[in-house]
Amino acid sequence: MPLSPNLYQYLMGSLSLVVEANSSTRYMLINTPNTFHTVSPFLVQKLLTSCIGEIQNVKKLRSGDLLVQVDSKQASVISKLTHLGTFPVETSFHTTLNVSRGVLSNPDFIHVTEAEFLEELRDQNVCAARRINIRRDGRLIPTQHVVLTFQTPVLPKSIKAGYINCKLRPYIPNPLRCFKCQRYGHSQQSCRGIDPVCGKCAESGHETNVCPSDTFKCKNCSGPHAASSKSCPTWIFEKEVIAVKIKRNITFPEARQIVKDRTPTVGVSYSSIVQMQPKISNNTSEISSMQLPVSIPLSTLPSKFFTAPTATTSMKNNSPKKSKQPTPGTSKTDIVKNKKKLKPLENSSKKTLDAKHFLKSNTSSESDMELDSSSAYRNVTKSREKPKKPPDKNLHPVCIALQETYLKPADIAKIKRYSLVRKDNENESGRASGGVALLVSHDTPSSVITLHTNLQAVAVRVMFSNLVTICTLYLPPSTSVDERDLNRLVDELPTPFIILGDFNGHSPLWGSKNTNLRLRQIEEFVNTHSLCLLNNGEDTYFHQRSRTFHSLDLALCTPSLAPYFNFRVGVDLRDSDHFPIFLDRVNVGSNDAPRPTRYLFHRADWTNFALRALITRDMVESENLNEVVNLVTKTIISAADDSIPKSGLSFPNNRKPWWNKYCTDTNRDQRRAWNVFRRHPTSANQIAFQRAKSIARWARRKSERGYWIKFVSGINSSVTAKDMWDNVRRACGIYPEKRISCLRKNGQEVRNISDMVDVLAEAFASICSASNYTEPFLTHNNRTERVKLRFQTTKHISYNTDLTIFELHTALSVLKHTSPGPDEVTYSMLQHLSEHSLLNILYMFNRIWKEHVFPDCWKHAFIIPIPKPGKDPQDPLNYRPIALTSCMCKLFERIVNVRLVHILEKNEYISPFQSGFRKSRSTIDNLMSLETDIRVAFLKRNHLVSIFFDIYKAYDRTWRYGIMKNLYDLGFRGNLPIFVQNFLKQRFFRVRMGNTYSNIFCQEEGVPQGSVLSVTLFVLAINPILSVIPQTVQKNLYVDDLHISCYARNMQLIERQLQTAINNIVEWSNKSGFTISAQKTIGIHFCKRPLHLDPELLLSGVPIRFQDNYKFLGIVFDKHLTFLPHIASLRKRCLRSLNILRTLSNTSWGAAAHVCFVFIAALSGL
User: Fold this and answer.
1) How many CB atoms lie within 10 A of CB 18?
2) Residues of the domain holding 690
3) Residue 411: inside a domain
4) Potential cystine with 469: which of 236, 451, 497, 838 (Cβ 3.0-4.6 Å)?
5) Cα atoms in the 13 Å half-sphere on the side-chain side of 709
6) How far apart are the first and last CA of the chain?
7) Of 93, 108, 132, which marks where a domain is finished?
């Protein structure tokens, strides 16, 4: 954008005023009537030095003028110069090099005028402001983007606008195109052409506005579009040249050469053929997006390995050798990161490379893509062994990132079925040091990106469903890294990109337990470029000397890729000291596995349902209660089948939750318009297609925003970061994969789904088996259960009266939508029954209540196995059983539970030290109690020792007879305890995966999972544990999280008190069926005085392990009560929330300021 005369005059006058106050570089023009072509350069140099001293740089322009780069003081001297020796000269400031333009984007300034910007920011060297407007329906609409012009050659990173610190990004104008010859690089006024060239048909002799042709042809690329099209490859090329020129502050020829080096030959690379390059968003909304070209494609080069060009090495080519085609049947392809010696990894062959089935294997896999990062050549100079095959034959990554390869430029490395791109490094003595490399599968379309950086880094672009840039980076621990080099590296990487590397930085944010000096640099680098950290906190490095684990290897990506990749760390070091890192791509396509049908309640006809689901008195008066319950269930389900549509057995192709019928219709209209235009490419058909395309795009964006606004309006402080990520992934069409790849049983792999459900069911049944009890408890159990508990009574007790319609309505009003049990009756169906039907259901409930019969169908449950995070998914014991029981039974339980809790609380049967699942009680009570005791002990200069107990499989091994014995001892008689007794008897379950069910298994002990009464019954079972703890020991309990503590000045006294309490707890557990885990029971010695030994306490003969900190009910307590470990964990959790905001800000449906504010307020609990 050329400077206007008024702005130029203003700059020339204002620059002379700021040069004294500003010490930045200035660019001056010195011209003479005779030019400097005939003057000796030596004489000019001496004259300049004598006048203004040593100057930074001098360049003679084509016009004969001198361009001088000087500092501000020298610029002030030159501006007053009239003669250079005997030559008369005129001096002036360069019109463009002394200013810089940046874009300020902030919705808070949408109503601020350009004059106000100029007035308020004048002290920050702002000399011009221009708001960017967009044209909609013939009128200009102001945007939040403002172009600011600064009187400094270097654009500042940020400015202070009012009270807001605003970041700036360079302003990249559109390429300058001549309207006469249609070429780029000059204007119409300076065009040397003779005849005008049409911008529509590329023919000479007439203007564009009078073109009679209906066809389009570009003058620059001969493509079927107008010369003004922003999809023209020449426009894209010129646009990137301007971007590189501005960002790197180099000349146009240098920028043009850089872009030319990394632009592929048209028709050769995969990306040029399919034209599927990802688009990058521009700095302003008036500049349309551009396609990022890729560099030299790997497939066109004759070598099977490539060396990234450096200052001392160049590309080396070797003749390729023919290799056999890879065999099919592999598992999955990923991006992997590891530190090990290089080993060839084979990949699977594919017939097609379409977006849907791209690089998928013939066997079952969890994801369709994986990336591996490795430091492959560690110690390769010491041992010249031949590369071995990987131990995992099913691992076939798309790309492998390597660091510390320890290769010299003369070393040759060939990997079967992989292309190698590498950058070697040598130290001062000529030995190999560091080095990086990328291995790319031959089955994957890819291209090399030429990087102009001093860092040890190489990059390629790989074709997944779209183009993704993968960069491997190594930062040596003993070498200082300039932050500007890292910034320039990011500028060279086409978005979206992933950086995998060994950063040698320690920070708790990515799992390290300590910190180092590089921590701040990496964090600043991540925040500056708004990158997302994919690490999940697992250790990636093993230090052999100290036998400690650290996290040095990081995976960074642009926010648009964050929802699509999962981070995991391998368990095998593979002859290295770094664990392999795997980035698994989330499956975005449809799931072919069948799923159970479900009712679509948003399309339900509830009026018809209430009329058809009519429960009569004759139905509920049958003698057999099991038949009554089955008949009522059958009636409700029959009415639901006639009134509520059901989903299909397979997942829909487009599973995005915001997709609706309007999106489908507009998308169909767009396809129709395209087909018409493709057959008859006229101007009218093109306009119709473009209109249909715009309408379809508008419909999708409106639906996306509507869905997101609906979700945002319903969030509160209870929402978690996981809930946020789940909704972000769903909005992107990404759903968690429910299928389990395989299980292990007795060392054998089980892959058949019908066998897998039985294996899981056996594992769940074994957990709650009575054979897991200890020998002392089994002896006590056999003796105690001989006594039969008789709950029958003839007394009138209030909690045994008939259930009322008020209680039924109250229970229905608090129900939320949950998955149904085996009978398929849901809460929504029960809530939409007529009043007459509810009265008859209440009659059925009262019959069950008074006749002491529990229906058999209510004793069965479906178990949905959910893998535990961070655990081996092949172990059946590492799955969390989610039980689905009858909703009608849970409605009954809710009414009974209200009565039971009322009696327990009214008579104070529950210990006041129990805070779990009680009204007006929470974890805050236990946390405040512990903190108060610690602070009191510190004030008294005492020691405080806390023990945090872990009860192993508490819910699954709760002694049922013990629950009934506690109810009996508390005086419960009649209908309520008899209902609880029948509720606990003979519980059965089946494991369900999709539409596959296991055999029926019995749950011998434990409270039923997924039931309303289970929580209250468990609290009742564990309640007596607090009574066995001595009064001199502080204690509190939150459900099954037991904590005891004692403080005194004498450590021996503390040991005696706590050991007595521990022995009593162990003795009680031997009589109650609970098992205290000695390995997971932790102690902390709170004391501000150093050099005090921890106490020695035993749990069942096993010493209790003491730590410096422990996470109790969500808060990390450290031995000095500084809460610094807790703050570190909070900072780590905030990074996950920050990644959500970065991802949202890069979408069209979540980038609004108020949306991001609501998210951060919810995540921070505001």
Assistant:
1) 15
2) 661-709
3) yes
4) 497
5) 10
6) 45
7) 93
Q: Kindly tell me if the per-residue pLDDT of 342 is higher than 70.
A: no
Identify the bridge partners of residue 441 per DSSP, sorted by sequence position: 418
> In the block, which residue shows the tokens 């001969």?
222
173, two tokens: 């104008």
Element at 1130 (helix H, strand E): helix 1124-1145
Do 1140 and 1107 fall into the same domain?
no
Residue 678 lies in a domain: yes
**Tokens linked to 780:** 């006590």
Answer left, alpha or beta for residue 446, where phi above 0 means left and psi between -120 and 50 means alpha.
beta
Cα(501)–Cα(518) distance, rounded to whole angstroms? Answer: 14
Can you point out the beta strands (E) in 774-859? none
| Overall size of the chain counted in residues | 1166
pLDDT at 380 over 70: no
The CATH number assigned to the domain holding 924 equals 3.30.70
d(CA 378, CA 579) in angstroms, rounded, equals: 13
pTM over 0.70: no
Task: Please name the residue that has the structure tokens 């509160």.
Answer: 716
pLDDT of residue 469: 92
What's 595's DSSP letter?
A: -
Using the 8-state DSSP alphabet, how is residue 287 labeled?
S
Q: 465 and 514: one domain?
A: yes
pLDDT score for 6: 41
The rounded distance, in Å, linking the Cα atoms of 281 and 433 is: 39
Give backbone dihedrals phi and psi of 914, rounded to 5 degrees, phi first: -95, 120
- Grouping H, G, I as helix, E, B as strand and the rest as coil, residue 1117 is strand
Look-up: residue for tokens 């925040």? 527
145 and 37, same domain (yes or no): no
| Among 325-339, 416-430, 842-856, the least confident range | 325-339
Identity of the residue numbered 1166: L
* 3-class SS of residue 258: helix
Beta strand spans in 998-1118 (E): 1001-1003, 1034-1038, 1041-1048, 1075-1076, 1082-1086, 1098-1099, 1102-1103, 1105-1106, 1109-1112, 1115-1118
Measure the CA–CA gap between 626 and 1140, rounded to whole angstroms: 51
Q: Same structural domain for residues 197 and 73?
A: no
- Take residue 453 and report the two structure tokens written for it: 């950086």
The closest of 986, 786, 787, 809 to 894, measured between CA atoms, is: 809
Do residues 110 and 254 share a domain? yes
pLDDT at 610: 92
Copy the structure tokens of residue 1104. Answer: 């209790």
Tell me if the bond preceding 496 is cis, omega within 30° of 0: yes
Q: DSSP character for 197? A: B
Q: How many CB atoms lie within 10 A of CB 1158?
A: 19
Q: Which of 1079, 1078, 980 is nearest to 1021 (CA)?
A: 980
According to the model, what pLDDT value does residue 237 have? 87
Strands 987-993, 860-867: parallel, antiparallel or unpaired by DSSP?
parallel
Please check whether residues 1108 and 1140 belong to one and the same domain.
Answer: no
Cβ atoms within 10 Å of 209's Cβ, excluding its own: 8
Q: Predicted confidence band at 547 (pLDDT cuts at 50, 70, 90)?
A: confident
The answer to whether residue 889 is domain-embedded is no
Residue 225 · residue 202 · CB < 8 Å: no
pLDDT tens per residue across span 1086-1129: 988 777 888 999 998 899 999 999 999 989 999 999 999 898 88
Among 585, 615, 637, the domain boundary falls at 585
Q: Are residues 1159 and 1073 in the same domain?
A: no
Dihedral angle sign, alpha carbons of residues 266, 270, 273, 276: negative
Residues 928 and 1019 in one domain: yes
Q: Does pLDDT of 1038 surpass 70?
A: yes
Q: How far is CA 613 from the centre of its chain?
A: 45
Q: Count of domains in the chain?
A: 6
CA distance 810 to 519: 55
Collect all residues with Cβ–Cβ distance below 8 Å to 743 and sequence separation of at least 6.
Answer: 749, 750, 756, 759, 760, 874, 875, 876
* Amino acid, res. 709: I
Considering the domain boundaries, does residue 547 fall inside one? yes
Question: Residue 1040: pLDDT above 60?
Answer: yes
